[in-house]
Amino acid sequence: MTTFFMGQVDEVRPTSRKNKDTGQITKYATVTATLETQNNEGYLIKATEDVQFSIDLLGSLQAIKGKFIAIPYAFISTPKGSYLFPDDNLKFTVFDKNPLEVKK
């Protein structure tokens, strides 16, 4: 199953991770995105995610700071548990305005 995380791009930065076994360093473009909404009772709800993309996308991701992004996530359920992770097989979508905003 595919689901999406929607949020406003707050920050885009280069990051790296070192494989403990091989010592190999892998570089990523990390996007911090925040969804700000209200629940049925009017209380503020915020969800923030840090999502890693290929370092090749760093420049194009930095260009969308302040815009809204929909990031596809794959949800799988196995006998050992359920997992949710960014789906590399699908592309993210960028919006100038929050597409979930409801006008009153």
Account of the 3D structure:
By secondary structure, the chain is mainly beta. Helix content is 5%, strand content 60%. It has one helix at residues 58-62, and strands at 2-18, 25-38, 44-54, 68-78, 81-86, 93-95. Strands 1, 2, 3, 4, 5 and 6 form a 6-stranded antiparallel sheet that branches. 10% of the residues are buried.
Q: Topology of this protein?
A:
Blueprint (H helix, E strand, L loop, with lengths): L1 E17 L6 E14 L5 E11 L3 H5 L5 E11 L2 E6 L6 E3 L9
Antiparallel strand pairs: 1-2, 1-4, 2-3, 4-5, 4-6
Into which percent range does the helicity of residues fall? under 10%
Major β-sheet, in short? 6 strands, antiparallel
CA radius of gyration is 16 Å
**Structural class label:** mainly beta
| Helical segment count | 1
Number of strands: 6
* Inertia-based shape: globular
Stretches with pLDDT under 50, minimum 5 residues: none
How much of the sequence lies in strands comes to: over 45%
Order of helices and strands: EEEHEEE
The N- to C-terminal Cα distance equals 32 Å
Index terms:
104 residues; mainly beta; six-stranded antiparallel sheet; 6 strands; 60% strand; globular
Structure, briefly:
With 104 residues, the chain is mostly beta strands.
